[in-house]
Amino acid sequence: MKTPHEIQYEAFAAETAYYTEQHAKLYADFADNLIADNSFSIVYEGVAHACYTPITIDAAPHLKCYILAPLAVLPEYQGQGYATRLMEEAEKQLNADAIFVLGDPKHYSNRYNTPHKVGFPVETQAPVECWFARELTPGTLSELGESTSSISGPFADPLMWKEPSEQI
Ligand SMILES: CC(C)(COP(=O)(O)OP(=O)(O)OC[C@H]1O[C@@H](n2cnc3c(N)ncnc32)[C@H](O)[C@@H]1OP(=O)(O)O)[C@@H](O)C(=O)NCCC(=O)NCCS
């Protein structure tokens, strides 16, 4: 059985158009650091892994919200719905009000399609068009309006909010 670190490393190392081996190590180590810091971690069918870390919406701190990252599927299993099924399973287990993700629209814009006005929890140059959310409790984000957000632990490191080209 592969470890979360192995799944993350192999998935990112194979994505040579966007990432180098150094990125693969950075994200695999990031996953391990999140797990050590008690983020929710899920290995799906031995081939996919993701972490979900609590994020606080400052205007509604009672809400149970998470940010998804890193997410990885072993290269030979990609494009077969494993990531989607992992996210479905994680959402069942977490019982969250909303889940956020910063990432590529092609991977996330369909599933994470709830309009929202929640700011990044860390100062970043990342484009807001890539800051997606999915409300699981109806109305959570649509009734909220504007809010800042907060996060602690490894995910509060500004390095993890930079463009890949600026991380190495
Ligand atoms: C991104 C990744 C996790 C997707 O896993 P997967 O099991 O192939 O994804 P799925 O088959 O469940 O598809 C999930 C969505 O991503 C889209 N997608 C997946 N791979 C894609 C690709 N190479 N190009 C375009 N869209 C893609 C699917 O169409 C689907 O979108 P939909 O919800 O609109 O139908 C996987 O390719 C991976 O591990 N990549 C390397 C690491 C990485 O880039 N992680 C994400 C960082 S933002």
From TrEMBL:
**GO molecular-function annotation terms?**
acyltransferase activity, transferring groups other than amino-acyl groups
**UniProt keyword list:** Transferase
Question: Which CDD domains does the protein's record reference?
Answer: NAT_SF
Q: Does the keyword Ion transport apply?
A: no
- Stretches assigned to the N-acetyltransferase domain: 1-137
In terms of Gene3D superfamilies, this protein maps to: 3.40.630.30
Q: What is this protein called?
A: Acetyltransferase
Task: State the organism named in the record.
Answer: Photobacterium aquae
